[in-house]
Design goal:
The chain has ten helices and 13 strands. The protein has about 290 residues and is of the alpha/beta class. The protein folds into two domains: about 220 residues, Rossmann fold; about 45 residues. The strands form three sheets. A six-stranded mixed sheet has the order 6-7-8-3-9-10, sandwiched between helices. A four-stranded antiparallel sheet has the order 2-1-4-5. It starts with a strand and ends in a 6-residue tail after the last helix. About 35% of the residues are buried.
Length: about 290
């Protein structure tokens, strides 16, 4: 990915004496999914609001598709899609009318709202009032609305928070489809599993700063510890669990000794999660 959809330089935002986002720097390639992980209050949403022109930074700048967001906000907004955790739909209107309204605001010609609703799993419910939708259905409609203008950059703020597994998987699949289309996806979340599954790279946001930024695999290799977990039936019939560090020079000998000492019932590898890595890097949990 040679082209950069997002370039952030020294971006800073303060609310009184609180530095919500503290001189952060990063870039995002075209067609890349970047996951921003951090607990509530870490600065994730404030970062998104600056990147989408809703907040003006006190210092630094953000370039989206080559445009300075603070100076060329209109040009940026026509090329991006935004989906926030809190729904802000017109609930007395139908889903189709919601999408048609936004298509008109964006000046999208030949818009096919029915096909877009089918894509997000709302086929057959196009003319139902949004107020009668479940939370998962509303979230799918929010995603659909963010896709009305076929954005080059898609901002998703906790898109699957509180949803059932079926709705979450449907939204995850749409995110991957958008990446396949060539869109850049900026995903803010505290869900480590979702970020690990979807993201090309993840950033750890903590107290307004980026504590780490790399691929999930590289972060695990750098900070994580790989283990083998064995369950053994002891001589007295009790189940005993043994943990062996895979990176230890003595690992092979320890595994061999386990098979000699008792009946090994299960043996599987276990690597550090992004939650484990986040705690190691920041000293905090993602779900605080």
């Amino acid at each position: 990915m040679s082209e950069k959809s997002i370039i952030v330089e020294n971006l800073t935002c303060r609310f009184g004496n609180l530095v919500a986002v503290d001189h952060i720097n990063f870039d995002v390639g075209q067609g890349e999914i970047i996951g921003f992980l951090g607990p509530n209050g870490a600065g994730k949403t404030t970062t998104v609001k600056m990147l989408t022109g809703q907040l003006r930074p006190q210092e630094g700048r953000a370039l989206l598709l080559g445009y300075d967001v603070a100076r060329e906000t209109g040009k940026v907004k026509s090329q991006i899609g935004i989906c926030f955790e809190q729904t802000n739909l017109y609930e007395q209107m139908s889903a189709l009318d919601n999408l048609n309204l936004f298509a008109e605001l964006f000046g999208v010609n030949g818009f096919d709202g029915v096909s877009l609703l089918k894509r997000v799993g709302l086929a057959g419910r196009e003319k139902d009032k949004v107020g009668n939708y479940s939370k998962g259905m509303k979230q799918r409609l929010m995603i659909a609305r963010a896709l009305v203008n076929k954005p080059q950059i898609l901002f998703l703020d906790e898109p699957t928070s509180g949803l059932d597994p079926v709705s979450s998987e449907a939204i995850d699949n749409i995110i991957l489809e958008e990446r396949q289309r060539g869109a850049t996806v900026f995903l803010t979340t505290h869900d480590m599993w979702e970020a690990d599954k979807l993201s090309d790279r993840v950033a750890f946001m903590n107290q307004g700063k980026i504590a780490a930024l790399d691929t999930p695999r590289n972060l695990k290799q750098k900070y994580g510890r790989r283990n083998l977990i064995a369950e053994i039936a002891g001589a007295d019939g009790r189940l005993v669990k043994k943990e062996i560090g895979m990176d230890s020079p003595a690992a092979a000998g320890e595994v061999g000794a386990l098979f000699q000492q008792g009946k090994v019932l299960t043996l599987h590898s276990e690597e550090a999660t992004l939650e484990d890595i986040f705690i190691q890097v920041t000293g905090r949990r993602l779900t605080e």
